[in-house]
Amino acid sequence: MARSISQFFIFAGFALILSYVCFASPPPKVSTIHVKSGQSIQAAINTAQPGNWILVEAGTYHEQLTITSDEINLVGLGAILVPPSSPQTNTCSGLGGPNTEAGICVTGSDVELAPFVVEHRKIVSVGRTVKNVLITGFEVRGFSGENIAVVGAENVQVIGNKLVDGDQYGCLVVGSSNTQVEGNAVVSNTNLRFISVCVDNSPGIQVSSNHVSGYVIGLCVQTSGADIRNNDVVNSCTGAFVDPGVKGAKLTKNHISNANATCTAIPGVGISGITIYGASDTTVQYNLIEGLTAGGLPGQTAVAVAILDTATDPVLLASGNIVTKNILRNNDLDIFVFTNGTGNVIENNQCSTPEELCA
Ligand SMILES: *[C@@H]1O[C@H](CO)[C@@H](O)[C@H](O)[C@H]1NC(C)=O
Ligand SMILES: *[C@@H]1O[C@H](CO)[C@@H](O)[C@H](O)[C@H]1NC(C)=O
To answer: In terms of domain of life, where is this protein from (predicted)?
Structure first.
């Protein structure tokens, strides 16, 4: 009893200090904007001040959203975003290829993009980054490019959204620092689409606890030091692909299983869990990769973890990659290493094939 009373006084004293700290400076102006079904979300974004919360009520909104101002908190409360009848042009137009549009485009100002070659346009320069934006609780459906794209931004959080049938990408982050993509369901239901979540040139990126399904590439890692953890990838071809030249990516505690059977019929695409392709110093630890199989098709082998040099010029060697403490089971082949790279460490994995790498 005496103890709990003294705890109460400590707590009360702490609250006093807190309220003193809070009221010593004028309270920040935080206001909330409500968007109702039938109203325009973009209109709310355009009038929002830094720090505002925009709460979007349940309904289907036929809009493309562009966020270029700082400290916008966009919250969906049962809101579904679908493409408008005619596309709007913004920085993300054409990002994922000619005639593609993003559902939500978070973008800095004066962003210069390189012409489209493959996959998506690269960032050349950013005039001013957009900072501290949160997008949560939305369902974004069926955009031709990305359901959500983050381009030339800082401290953006994409958390707890449902991204459905994004044709080129569910979520693409390019040239943005300290982005967090967490707890989203990024799924393609109607056919196998291109890339679910991709992080290109975005230092400090974290991609965690997402559920991915129905993509040729589940997680595309094009950022050195990217932190990819606790994601669950099913019904896809490649769980995670670490691109040539990427250094020090960390893939931990991901679960990759149940590949889509049609992957074996797509030319140049097989089934794999984690592929390290000409990347170095990757850490692959505590992942569970299971049940990946090409179903005995001649000439096809599903591999849980593959370490490869690039097959085309310039040849980049896969060196210094560490694959430990993973559980790899019921795959055609658990580990495949084909590289002239040095310093790759493959040990302490629970697996069976090939014996010499799993011992
Ligand atoms: C492959 O994935 C697509 C997209 O989710 C799905 O429509 C299709 O049924 C899947 N195919 C198989 C054979 O599982
Ligand atoms: C390693 O390099 C040699 C010589 O260039 C080449 O013949 C061989 O195919 C390479 N091995 C791999 C695994 O790339």
So the answer is: Eukaryota
Give the DSSP letter of residue 280.
B
CB-defined site of ligand 1, < 6 Å: 188-192, 214, 235, 260-262
To test ligand 1's pocket by mutation, which of 192, 194, 258, 264 has the most ligand atoms within 8 angstroms of CB?
A: 192
Alpha carbon 66 to its chain centroid, in Å, reads 19
Which residue's alpha carbon is at the smallest distance from atom 6 of ligand 1?
Answer: 191
Q: Does residue 342 line the site of ligand 2, with CB under 6 A?
A: no
70 within ligand 2 shell (Cβ under 6 A): no
Structure token digits, residue 44:
């709310």
How many angstroms separate the CA atoms of 248 and 240, rounded?
Answer: 15
Residue 44 lies in a domain: yes
115-165 pLDDT, tens per residue?
Answer: 999 999 999 999 999 999 999 999 999 999 999 999 999 999 999 999 999
Residues in the chain: 359
- Residues of the domain holding 226: 2-236
Which of the listed residues 235, 258, 269 should we mutate to test ligand 1's pocket, taking the one with most ligand atoms within 8 A of CB?
Answer: 235
What pLDDT score does 164 carry?
A: 98
Q: Can you name the residues that pair with 307 across neighbouring β-strands?
A: 276, 337
Give the CATH number, domain containing residue 11.
Answer: 2.160.20
Any domain includes 335: no
Q: What single-letter amino acid sits at 79?
A: A
Q: Which of 310, 313, 317, 340 to mutate to test the pocket of ligand 2 (most atoms within 8 A of CB)?
A: 340
Q: What is the mean pLDDT of each run of 10 residues along the chain (359 residues)?
A: 40 41 53 96 97 97 98 98 96 97 98 95 96 98 98 98 98 98 97 97 98 98 98 98 98 97 90 98 98 92 97 95 98 98 98 93
pLDDT digits (tens, 9 = 90+) for 173-216: 999 999 999 999 999 999 999 999 999 999 999 999 999 999 99
Half-sphere exposure of 175 (CA within 13 A, CB side): 24
Could you tell me if the CB of 309 is within 6 A of ligand 2? Answer: yes
CA 174/CA 111 separation, integer angstroms? 11
